[in-house]
Amino acid sequence: MEYRVLGGSGFKVPALGFGAGTFGGKGPLFSAWGKTDVEEARRLIDLCLDAGANLFDTADVYSEGASETILGAALKGRRDKAILSTKIGLRVGPDTNDVGSSRFHLVRGVERALTRLQTDYIDLLQVHQFDAFTPVEDLMSTLDDLVRSGKVRFIGASNYSGWELMKSLAVADRYGYRRFVAHQAYYSLIGRDYEWELMPLGVDQNVGALVWSPLGWGRLTGRIRRGQPLPERSRLHETAHIGPPVDEERLYRVIDALEDISRETEKTIPQIAINWLLQRPSVATVLIGARNEAQLKDNLGAVGWSLTDEQMRQLDSASAVTPPYPYYPYWNGQFAERNPPCVPSLERIR
After folding, report:
1. Residue of 62, 160, 186, 187 with catalytic role
2. CATH superfamily of 3-312
């Protein structure tokens, strides 16, 4: 397993981490993802630890807390071998303050997460969404206090826009608070919006990306083909309407390219899609999820090799989309004279 420094933390994380959204299976969304219990979770965690993929990511909202509970139980007796990442901020109950980034909700949420995870500290705590009702100064102060208390080691954001992330970093710098070192964001071959603003920001401000849904909400698993109906067992039947949107023709164009490269490399479509992400700037960890051991073993095969430059260009071309204003003048070179690329290998990113 390759290990990479997480943003400006000095802390190394594996290139592949495990997303525990399949643990628990409570509610309409998460039951469509998976229903992994403690016994099966132990087996999946064994495979991850043996492969060096020792970062496990969850959230208090996953299966109404059951994901954290199952993860904590499955890691019992080997907490020191794991990097635990969780998220707080989405609504977790009916009470007025069961949502957001207020000091009340974050402190209470961390205490509850520690209990469910059966641990004394969280390695990486991420704010699951931006909260426009809580002043950024209060948020960063609370997160700083949680780090100073020893209950949290590092902090990150999730699903932030560029200005939200930059404002948070600026406030941290102004008052000497701990900075976000990670940003958990959606990024895939069929969802490249991350590249327009968040990727250059991550490179410039040293914020590492933890990529969620690297297979495009289940669309790049290798089971979807041009001219064929959705597989009978696919979470897209129940959840496509709430997942990241994608143009159908662009999806099939990417799948066609993945199939070509799969034949060349003898790698699976998911392995190729994940490997492409691992070669992108600012990416620290790609979070893989799996309902069973076969899926996990396949995803773990995305490391230990690299796509060629030509294969990267083929995938870049198949998945390319013109960014909206004000980004496209930077990407098509109109502003190149006074704006040299802040992201390495910009030619690949276009």
Report:
1. 62
2. NADP-dependent oxidoreductase domain (3.20.20.100)
